[in-house]
Specification:
The chain is of the alpha/beta class. The chain is about 40% helix and about 15% strand. It has a single domain (about 35-350), classed as TIM Barrel, CATH 3.20.20.70. The chain binds ligand FNR.
Amino acid sequence: MAARGIVAIYATIRVQEPRAHQPCDEATMTVSPFLTLHELIKKARQKLNHDNWDYIVGGAETETTVRRNRLALDSIAFRPRVLRDVSRIDASTKFLGRPLRLPVVLAPVGGLEHFATEAGGAAAKAAEEFGIAHMLSSVCLPGLEAVAQAAPEALRMYQLYVHGDAGWVDAMAERALAAGYAAFCLTVDTAFYSRRERDLAKRNIRRDNVPGREFQARLDWNDVARLKAKFALPLILKGVATAEDAKLALEHGVDIIYVSNHGGRQLDHGRGAMDILPEIVAAVGGRAPIIIDGGFNRGTDIVKALAAGADLVGIGRMQCVGLAADGQPGLVRLLEILEQEVRTCLGLLGVTCWSELDGSYLHPAPAVDPGHTLGAFPLLTLEEKSFY
Ligand code: FNR
């Protein structure tokens, strides 16, 4: 990693905006049988059939991008500072003017209805109950109005796959505005639906034949500019993976850059998301907030992202795990454990709030795990069913 110049980049990156200080309360943990994240994963695995498990954990073709997401995070060690008063820690932040208990958004996930009662409604309610942001996928039931009703107080954003012409897109944006969504997101790394071999090998064909898929492949920067000019809603581009496209996004009026390789589910042999982040932070230069996702499964992962200049971290598969394990309470519990991990990490780094954190707390290091979707959970056992 040193050869890639990442040390110098991390050392110079500073969190741009001072983040809001809020009263520092110990998290109120709900009464729950789950004490660790891997216990939730084991429960989810027990409850899910093989098809749904593979749909969640799988990626495109060789799944190299999936593994690189973990490898990129695991290749960073911390440089902790000591003898600072860390008796009060504030892990909260603000996004789009709204306070959040953690700098986390539930990433858009399609098809939650296959394994979670209430689907997107349960995820949004968990986000509302815990106090983080939620982004609803346009291919997740029960649809944008019902989810808005289920979680009226949550910071809700709406993500669209473009399956129609400009009139169709405008109608979706108008519905999102009317339903009180705080931002509109176009996912732009899905010109083609990838070859997910775990699904294909079982003849479990999910989205190849969705009507209107060709509109997603035709998208270009003119569509982004048109949308931005027509609607006042903050616009997010999800799937930005180069500095060049981050700059183009800003030139076309995009308000928030969402760094993502779709959790390794689209382009195979992409870079790990955390390896992409430094060049995006440098290109954006503090002109727009940055969301990142891809392999962020632990509190330490969230801390690494913020130290490297991200503002919000998206949680994809772990959201599915929490919901599959125990519905809305399972997801809230997962967030509580993540929060405990974040707070513990910040305190052990000698940091009491996000504005004190920067790239000087990060250092390249050899990964101890070869990289796997669940590589962050070495204590998973393989007693009953395979996790791999
Ligand atoms: C996704 N993702 C996704 N992204 C998107 O923009 N729209 C969508 O409908 C979906 N659907 C979806 C389904 C499932 C089951 C998963 C796991 C993921 C991608 C998601 O938003 C996010 O980019 C990744 O999941 C982040 O990586 P991790 O956290 O899963 O490693």
